[in-house]
Amino acid sequence: MGYPESDYLPAVLRGAAEAQDCVYILGLCEDPDRESWWLSFQECGEPDEQDRALGWDTYWIGAGVDSQRGCYGGVVECEIRASEQPTLPKMPPSDMSQLRLVLAEQAAATLRLPTEVYFTLRLPDSQLQMVKRGLVRVLNSGRPDSTPRLLRM
Q1: What pLDDT, in 10s, does the model give residues 67-100?
Q2: Cα–Cα nearest to 41, from 101, 83, 117
Q3: Cα(86)–Cα(22) distance, rounded to whole angstroms?
Q4: Which of 19, 85, 109, 140 is the most exposed place for a label (fewest CB within 10 A)?
Q5: Predicted model pTM
Q6: Do 71 and 42 contact (CB within 8 A), yes or no?
Q7: How far apart are CA 145 and CA 127, in angstroms?
Q8: Bridge-partner residues for 101, per DSSP?
């Protein structure tokens, strides 16, 4: 797609989707109409002994074009804040919110993201509500010590 391999990071995510096959997956993307940068969250399935031994007994997070980089766990804080942009009386309410993630250093390095990263979410309300429900579901799956210390929607 022409993005630099290491440091491309979109400021605005304009699409969201969810899927349920063996496990629940939530994805946020830069542009839903073309191949683009994705931030994906996958719920923990039913871990076996090998998964536990390898640390795969928790949620998975991916980032990049097609979420090509990923790791298990690593979200320390996750919150969605309402837009702080003022809305004039004759304008429709803003449909932008802000996603803030704080990542453990190893997760940030693997994902090639800063340890604290912000994304503007420009989503219809139905998708924003889906994202909020999906993040709570995914980030609470797996072993308890990987659950974020702050999870505010």
Answers
A1: 789 999 999 999 999 866 555 554 444 567 999 9
A2: 101
A3: 42
A4: 85
A5: 0.86
A6: no
A7: 29
A8: 78, 117
